[in-house]
Design goal:
The structure is a homodimer of 415-residue chains. Chain A has 415 residues and is of the alpha/beta class. Chain A has 15 helices and 16 strands. The model of chain A has no long low-confidence stretch (mean pLDDT 95).
């Protein structure tokens, strides 16, 4: 049996036990994991140094090298994240809905784990810890398939995770990590529908597209974040400036950063000069529509491609719109339906915007950067789903569950 | 533009309007539809007669011909079903969850329609009415693709549906029906991911498998029902006999009929002779394990294939098991995770069974035949999902929705 099949089958067997395991043992496993990350950090750093050395040899540098690097602070964060997940209420066993039918049958819709989660992800090793913790907490077994660039770090983390789980009395095969990092192994993983219930790709657009197109297992995808800030005519312009700046500049390389600013024509003349100076001082490249460039002529011309592309960089595209209807029409056409925000003090505009914009997260007077599992109070996240089935937006432990109907009666027969 | 693409695009355009349409207009459309089925029944019968004539020419007979035939009673039922759906509470707009974060942001998880539903189904024309009504009620546009054998009936029903919707003021393109019934059109429909958010196959196993394997759109599948009745040692044997009989005989051709009886060895000697006589009198063919045949020697031998196959016929496979653990192990191995029931008066056995059996519907002292949208109080159903993501078990209007996060604040910025 291949490594992939072997490990998927082991995870499946563990999942049946994990599904009915009480919170006490699951939480004990998570606290043991957090402690072991801290006490075992030297073994993590040692493995991480091997990955960093190969990375440098392969010419990996900049942001990607930084994401790959673990230090004291990152390990502490990782451990804290796991403890926060442990502190959440166990979603398993919750009665989501319960009622009685006219014939006396009692129905309960009860939350249960999905079973086995597969995850295919890239570079950041802290994903290994987050994902393992979220899956254990929600009673799911997990098969991890990280990128080759972080394989040694991931294996060191997985060893600590597996030892902690076993020491706490949870099924030892609950967390599996695929050591073979070639494409063949990834392809084989995507075919394991008899063992894996749900596959989650987390990483770049190409990775996600490949998984969506190849997988025989249902996929919850996390595609791009082409997020919009719409500054309405009735906005508090100081607030609008702060939100636009925060949404673009605070961390431009993530999916919930803003890519497009829609400025209402009634305030564009006042607002655009102020915000464009502030953004350009922070190193942001601005590209605008014709009306924008009539107001601020030193802004470059935006191309058709600009409106639909996630930049993940210090670039902001600006369009002047005639009002709420045009703003919503633009978002409907170009948004990736991840997160879009309106800045306004006008009740009707806010109401129309939240009602009509069909995105996972629709905000009023809040930075798009809040579209995040931790910020939503979910402890951590599996990612931000941009699909509509099962989970939409930040995916936490609740989104790693399904339900079953438990129906009890006294001999009811169908007539 | 092809017929399929054209209609999918029209449905997508209608879905945006339908998503924010109030209940009053949607319900008005449903009541108009129900009335028009009744007043327009002659045009339905006329179309149905054309389908029945071709069916007979093609040698279709028996149950399939019966399912295709519409009469006064069936049209009345169809109209009543639509009125029942109209009377349900609108799921759209419900706040599923709402809370405030430490920084003062208010989060609401709000139920919204999925968007455009595609459905590929076979023979029974009443599915056309049920599905259209469920989709409209839940604010979704729908693209219907029925089988060629019912095409004239389906077109007549769709005409009535479309006229009723338009007369009530709902978007006229909300319900689309594909007239081309060849495989090419089905294949094209399965590729329309830019327009269709969710594809539901409803019909035979081959149809479902083909859709699951071919579709580029997320699929909620409705596979086979290999359902079990486990009669525990602590069962009331009269109740156990009635439930077994009802689960097998009341309608053997549907997915929630029982296929396997698991009899606890402590009661098998008393129970099997009684129930086997009763079942055989009703024309049920029995096949059993060795221990079963030691008790009732005139029962045929069950093959390995029997344990895993949905019969949809008057055949019941019987196995004697040593207790709850063996019963659960058998179900875990062979069940299609649709519906499994235990008959017992013993608390611990019921508790263990409902906790450990990983099926969409797990019952205690209730016939498997209750696994049904109408019986669950959902008015009607899109089908019974046997997958774990998004919807599990009977799918009603709530399962045709997703959610979005509406977050409101006062200028919150991420730090």
């Amino acid at each position: 049996m291949s490594e992939v099949k072997n490990k998927c089958a082991a995870a499946k067997a563990a999942s049946a036990k994990l599904a009915t395991l009480g919170s006490a043992i699951k939480d004990k496993a998570l606290f043991a994991m957090a402690d072991a990350f801290e006490s075992g950090k030297e073994s993590i750093f040692e493995a991480n140094r091997i990955d960093l050395a190969s990375a440098e040899k392969n010419g990996i540098a900049g942001a990607m090298l930084k994401r790959l690097t673990l230090d004291d602070a990152k390990v502490m964060q990782m451990a804290d994240g796991v403890r926060q997940i442990a502190a959440l209420r166990d979603p398993v066993g919750e009665t989501i809905e319960g009622y009685m039918r006219p014939n006396g049958m009692e129905l309960r819709k009860v939350r249960v784990p999905i079973g086995v989660i597969g995850i295919i992800y890239e570079s950041r090793p802290n994903v290994t810890a987050d994902v393992a913790a979220l899956c254990i907490k929600s009673g799911n077994a997990v098969v991890l398939r990280g990128g080759s660039e972080a394989i040694n770090t991931n294996l060191a983390l997985a060893k600590i995770i597996q030892d902690s789980i076993t020491s706490a009395g949870a099924p030892e095969n609950s967390v599996q990590i695929i050591e073979t990092t070639d494409r063949e192994a990834a392809r084989e993983l995507m075919s394991m529908k008899q063992y894996i219930d749900c596959l989650i790709p987390r990483g770049g657009k190409n990775l996600v597209r490949t998984v969506v197109e190849t997988s025989q297992i249902p996929v919850i995808w996390h595609l791009d974040g082409n997020c919009h800030v719409y500054v309405h005519a009735g906005a508090d312009l100081a607030m609008a400036g702060d939100i636009t700046f925060n949404a673009k500049v605070q961390n431009p390389s993530v999916c919930n950063a803003a890519e497009t600013l829609l400025a209402d024509e009634q305030i564009a003349g006042d607002f655009l000069p102020l915000i464009s100076d502030r953004l350009m001082e922070a190193g942001v490249e601005l590209r605008g529509c014709e009306k924008t460039r009539a107001i601020a002529p030193d802004i470059k011309e935006a191309t058709q491609e600009d409106w639909k592309t996630e930049k993940l960089d210090l670039i902001l595209v600006i369009k002047v719109v005639g009002g709420v209807d045009e703003a919503i029409a633009h978002i409907t056409k170009y948004s990736s339906n991840h997160t879009d925000t309106i800045v306004t003090q006008d009740y009707s505009a806010a109401h129309q915007f939240t009602g009509e914009v069909d995105s996972a997260c629709v905000f009023v007077n809040v930075s798009t950067r809040f579209s995040d599992g931790y910020e939503f109070g979910k402890g951590a996240e599996m990612g931000i789903s941009t699909q509509k089935l099962h989970a939409r937006g930040p995916m936490g432990i609740e989104e790693l569950t399904t339900y079953k109907y438990v129906v009890t009666g006294s001999g009811q027969l169908r007539t």
